[in-house]
Amino acid sequence: MSEDRLRDLLREEPLPDAADAERRGLALVSRAYAERQPATKPVLPRLAVALVAATVLAALLLTPAGAAVRDWIDDVFTAGVRHAEPALTEIPGGGELLVQSPRGPWVVQADGSRRLLGRYEEATWSPRGLFVAAASGRTLSAIEPDGTPRWSISANGRIGDPRWSPSGFRIAYRAGRSLRVVRADGTAEETVGPMSAAIPPVWFPPGLHLLAYVDAQRQVVVAEVDTARRMDAADASPGVVGLAWSADGDRLLEIARRGLWLRDVQVSKLGGGLRLGEARRISLPADAMVRAAAYSPRSDALAVLLERASGPGAPRSEAALVGPSGDSARRIFAVSGRLAELAWSSDGRRLLLAWPAADQWLFVPLSHGARLRAIGDISAVFSPGSPAGARFPRVDGWCCATGGG
Predict the structure, then answer these.
(1) Which of 21, 281, 321, 389 is the most exposed place for a label (fewest CB within 10 A)?
(2) Distance between CA atoms of residues 29 and 38, nearest Å
(3) CA quadruple 387, 388, 391, 393: dihedral positive or negative?
């Protein structure tokens, strides 16, 4: 049964014990009327009606049946942010978005204008947004944001998870099961790991050409890509599906559906060494499932998107900020429904949360007093001319709009 049909049935269903509540209310009013004293103003009938209303409201809110009604009302009000803007006319906070749709990746400018780059399956920004690395089948291409191709290379296996280095000089990608790196001009391909897990690699943010990935033996590996030298390796945490560096490179996060693990990282710049610390688990609610986690590009703030069961019906989603040590969390947004992903703005001041069931993007500010903005009808924006069942797109990056490499 669809969610819309369920809501229609609930609206048509009479409130629990409505008939009994009405009879009790009428009896109370009748007794109050019969016992009334002469007065110059009709105070008691109004008071009695107020008492009846309070009694019925209390029954609805405090009884088990009333709790179900209360939860349903909450779901109705949280099936999407009210008064969402009907069109994407600008990106709140500025910057540029890279959005993957069934038709391929789109570049969205700060003013909301957008361009389809072509039939590519995955894409990633260069560090300053001047280029995009895009994968299609066994081909990796570097293209400009207006769709102009610069170069393409081919591989023996299917290419996936392209990631442009912070320096701008290297692009990592997986070709089949091997992890490879190519220079930003499309030359000098090198194999970093002959066998890697199907998990995107992550570049060391301070700019050194260090790459963290998970190999086929389920070890977290940090390698220096210019020499293909392993710096350190450690057994991956249970169920790891993703990795993320803190902005200063002092911590490496391991992401699993049922938990998050944090490792301190020590880098010796003089000796050229690196050491991975022991993984420690971040404290999360016992019933929480991790949907996404990402570090701010500007600080050590860690944003986590959690999904928590709330009985029958839709789950509840919460976005929270976790402290640097992983021992504290502050909830910044929650809805009744399933949020799918999060992305940081390049200035670290906002989070973009995707809400597919409501067909909305939510731009959540992290400063107090700033207004949340919701943009609706997202599927149609990135599937022009498609029927009503267009698929919800995926945000592949929120980049800066300033010049550089």
Answers:
(1) 389
(2) 16
(3) positive
